[in-house]
Specification:
Layout lengths: L5 H20 L6 H7 L6 H19 L9 H22 L5 H21 L3
Helix pairs in contact: 1-3, 1-4, 1-5, 2-3, 3-4
Amino acid sequence: MLLYNDIELVVKRSKELESRLREELGAQGDGLAALARSVEGMLPPQTFQQLLDVAEMRNKIVHNKNQDILENRDHFVQLCNEIEISLNELRTHFQPRGSGKWGCLVMAIIITAPIICLMMNPS
């Protein structure tokens, strides 16, 4: 297993989470916090808060020139692992066919098609 310094660890794990939010949930925005906020309604409240916590830790270490190490590396890793588990569960239970934006589009069409048909052909 590779060992990373804290900056590498924070950037790597944050990028992985950002990618998953975009690809699997269709999140939009720049940065982890913005991505999480864009799909807040799809996330369990605890997972949403964990994402904001990880984003805050990431921003402190990336943007503060005097901070090169995490205040609590184990806690950061634990949060990331718990978020990954939650995203895996969401993907397993709720991900429509396809992924990300396309999956959401397919689900929207499936849900709205009967309503549109009823509106066009009232009986």
